[in-house]
């Protein structure tokens, strides 16, 4: 058995979700799973591909049609320009992009700077490559990585650091980075021979203004990861992408080819349609998420919770009231058992997460109202 694999534990998020799913009448606000359906025109594109017997391997980098559609989409949306022939790779979801990129990039003994709280997937993948995660707690800065903290982390590890992870709008906090924030980080990063892995899968779920891609600010050192999972409610279709300098994409492409050969053919056809003719498919979802966010924040504040106002994604990172159990794992187990509401412990997201819970509002308004009522009653009984 690979010792690095043996040292890893299963995802605490999925493990907790599976555990509480057995509780009768539980309201689950745990996973980042949009409750919207994939747009009809996108589904029809996949059906047509199946009927046309498009059931064979594609180019390992993805069909050229999809790569062209994706690069056009990114250019129109965020002003980032990539050559579809050499600078983009279609992956098995954004997860596939993260895995292939870190595997291609890392050697044993390298370090990766990871601002936390953050979606924990990056951590075990870095460790599988023999690298060491360097955590930078952002909880004292509104959950935004400051250039000063980044500079310090790089300097303390400058002989080993290979990459910096950015994820925005951020899972679990819903906080995003604006152009000024990104420019300050780019000013620091540009002084070093390192890469930024910019996970922008929630880019279309930016509420205030337009999403700014790190690829538009520091293109020569940035690998942009995105896909159709959140923008087009296509989580199960498993189509992601990674874009960046051609020589780096070439190396990442080797890993992806050895891992999956190529992404599913009819799913690529669906993603091509999504990018071509679904430029604004996320708009109604975004409006619904804003309404749900406001509903949830109001209800949580009445129960004594405080949290940063999310300006993207579909998560609230709520501070547990001082009157309740501050151990997030114990609190979430208690909330599930006694109030029949399931949320994710903040400890799952790294340093700065303890004392918080992540609440997904990618759920129906009816479920959110039921959860709020139960959480408020639970909090009142514990005072």
From TrEMBL:
Pfam name, any one: Aminotran_1_2
Boundaries of every Aminotransferase class I/classII large domain copy: 25-375
Gene Ontology annotations of biological process type: amino acid metabolic process
Enzyme Commission no: 2.6.1.-
Cofactors named for this entry: pyridoxal 5'-phosphate
Molecular function terms, GO-annotated: pyridoxal phosphate binding; transaminase activity
Keywords tagged on the record: Aminotransferase, Pyridoxal phosphate, Transferase
Family: Belongs to the class-I pyridoxal-phosphate-dependent aminotransferase family.
PANTHER family linked: AMINOTRANSFERASE (PTHR46383:SF4), ASPARTATE AMINOTRANSFERASE (PTHR46383)
Name listed for the protein in its UniProt record: Aminotransferase
Species of the source: Lentilactobacillus hilgardii (strain ATCC 8290 / DSM 20176 / CCUG 30140 / JCM 1155 / KCTC 3500 / NBRC 15886 / NCIMB 8040 / NRRL B-1843 / 9)
Lineage, opening ranks: Bacteria, Bacillati, Bacillota, Bacilli, Lactobacillales
């Amino acid at each position: 058995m690979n010792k690095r694999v043996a040292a890893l534990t299963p995802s605490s998020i999925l493990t907790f979700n599976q555990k509480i799913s057995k509780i009768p009448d539980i309201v689950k606000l745990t996973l980042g799973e949009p409750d919207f359906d994939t747009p009809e025109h996108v589904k029809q594109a996949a059906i047509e591909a199946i009927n046309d017997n498009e059931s064979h391997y594609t180019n390992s980098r993805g069909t050229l049609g999809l790569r062209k559609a994706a690069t056009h989409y990114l250019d129109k949306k965020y002003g980032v320009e990539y050559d579809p022939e050499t600078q983009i790779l279609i992956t098995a979801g954004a997860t596939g992009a993260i895995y292939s990129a870190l595997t291609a990039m890392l050697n044993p003994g390298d370090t990766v700077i990871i601002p936390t709280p953050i979606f924990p997937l990056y951590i075990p993948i870095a460790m599988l490559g023999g690298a060491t995660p360097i955590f930078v707690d952002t909880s004292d800065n509104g959950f935004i990585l400051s250039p000063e903290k980044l500079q310090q982390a790089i300097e303390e590890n400058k002989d080993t650091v290979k990459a910096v992870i950015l994820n925005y709008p951020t899972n679990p906090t819903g906080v995003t980075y604006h152009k000024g924030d990104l420019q300050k980080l780019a000013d620091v990063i540009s002084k070093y021979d390192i890469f930024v892995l910019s996970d922008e899968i929630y880019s279309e779920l930016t509420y205030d203004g337009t999403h700014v891609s790190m690829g538009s600010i520091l293109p020569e050192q940035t690998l942009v990861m995105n896909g159709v999972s959140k923008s087009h409610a296509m989580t199960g279709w498993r189509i992601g992408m990674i874009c960046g300098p051609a020589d780096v994409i070439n190396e990442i492409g080797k890993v992806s080819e050895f891992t999956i050969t190529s992404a599913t053919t009819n799913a690529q056809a669906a993603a091509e349609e999504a990018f071509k003719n679904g430029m604004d498919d996320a708009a109604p979802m975004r409006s619904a998420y804003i309404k749900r966010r406001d509903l949830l924040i109001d209800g949580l504040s009445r129960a004594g919770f405080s949290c940063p106002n999310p300006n993207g994604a579909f998560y609230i990172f709520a501070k547990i009231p001082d009157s309740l159990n501050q151990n997030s794992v114990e609190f979430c187990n208690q909330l599930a058992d006694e109030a029949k509401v399931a949320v994710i412990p903040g400890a799952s997201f790294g340093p700065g997460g303890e004392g918080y819970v992540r609440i997904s509002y990618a759920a129906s308004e009816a479920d959110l109202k039921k959860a709020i009522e139960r959480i408020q009653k639970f909090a009142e009984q514990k005072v």
